[in-house]
Amino acid sequence: MENGEMNAGSDLRAGLLSGSAHSPPAQVKRIGIDDMLRLHTGELGRWQLRHFVLTCAAWALEAFHTMVMIFADREPAWQCKLAGGCPPDNCGIPAASWEWVEGSAASTVSEWGLICGQRYKVGLSQSAFFAGCMVGAGVFGHLSDSFLGRKGSLTIVCILNAISGVVTSLSPTYWFYTGFRFLNGFGTGGVGLCAFVLATEPIGPSKRGVAGMSTFYFFSGGIAILAGVAYLFPTWRTLYIVSSLPSIVFVLLIIPFISESPRWYLIRRQTAKAMDIMHTIARCNGREIPPGITLKLDDEDDEENSKECSQVAESGSIIDVLRSRRTRLRLILMVGINFLCAIVYYGLTLNVVNLKTNLYLNVTLNSISEMPAFIITAVLLDRLGRKPLGVGTMMLSGVSCSIGFFISGTGVLMKTIRMICGVIGIFGMAAMYNLLFIYTTELFPTVVRNAALGCVTQATQLGAILAPLVVVAGQSLPFAVFGGCGIAGALLTYYLPETMNKPLYDTMTGLEDGEGKFVI
After folding, report:
1. Which band of pLDDT confidence, cut at 50, 70 and 90, is reported for residue 373?
2. Cα distance between residue 193 and residue 189, in whole Å
3. Do 310 and 44 meet the contact criterion of CB atoms below 8 Å apart?
4. How far apart are CA 191 and CA 193, in angstroms?
5. What Å distances lie between residue 376 and 125, 171, 381, CA to CA?
6. Cβ distance 336 to 494 under 8 Å?
7. What parts of the sequence cross the membrane (predicted)?
8. 432: closest CA among 399, 468, 464, 387?
């Protein structure tokens, strides 16, 4: 009897075990990338730090190609060849009565005689570079969101910069030089935005702000390095070659170790590749993604939706940004803010060549002086939020420049006060210029992020084109313009939404659903 009961119990357990062996698998849990980073891979671990540093090295390359004009287009010192001496201005004396101290090969100004009535050509070639940046930012902003991806676009712009930089050094005439500078700007316009998005997208939401603010250390460091390189290679043709070669080194030695953005893979419906990167991040950070966890986009709520959309790559363009009222208003505001910020930032920094002191030392000190602004902004970013910090830094710059406008007089004290106003102005605007990249990244979803960033970068380059025209207007008027731009930018920033600790949306639908309760 007991044996019969035992056999029956055994048969019952066997049946249960057999049934469990054929039971359906556990439900796959699908979460967004931000949740994956926060819960399973780590928001800012060893993998993200390595990837961030390698990618942001491209910002130093952008500094090389942008700021090389300070040294290549400088007006060298000249000396009189007449025994009786010459007037202080060489415009009114015969060319045979004076000569360049460093020779005609020192800069484009000395080689092609861009002085006196031809001085406007210096600004023209610099404006051509920024015009190229404006076009390139829009083109590569779109391409990096579409089939090329972030990494592919970054590779192409670095190759283009290396080639155009070397070709610029071979310019036979001024007009060839100006055309090659436009081409160089076309590539440079895509470097910063591609590198920024690629570096920050794999970082978790609570760490993304500080990481994004840290990218500009590489730009400022690149300027300081360029000053040393320019001191060692004082002729402009050699300087263009030397400053362009690092782009090839970056493509050959660094880009192979940089990963494509998992967010880009996800919006292209390549979930398997996105998950491979997430598993790599987790392993490198000493974490592990539990079985049954996979990724989804913001607008995917269930398994059926995933199956319906799995074969369709998510794509977007600036048209999609303009079609939505929420993103349209954000884009208009960011275009205006970036435009005003660029006028003040580049306007206050382009006076370096007019200080009549050691050019190499001044450029180095300027680049280093911006770093405290980055540090303070990074510290306050996740305490005060993006919006209050943006309003405060723009207002600080605008008010200080306005005070500089009302300071009159030619004495040492008045000049010192105006100089201090300018330093405070560039301090505040450097902080805002840094903040704008991370702010723009968080305001727009992944599918149109680079397109939006490219659009606002175009506005920045337009402001950079106009900045030299403001500088040549005189000593006090530029301060009035810079002050007005700073205050106006602060007012525009006030109407932006706060993005601190908000999710980084992937799709337009996800943004609309997630922030439907907000006006913009």
Report:
1. confident
2. 8
3. no
4. 6
5. 35, 43, 8
6. no
7. 127-144, 156-177, 183-203, 215-233, 239-259, 331-348, 360-381, 393-411, 417-439, 451-471, 477-496
8. 387
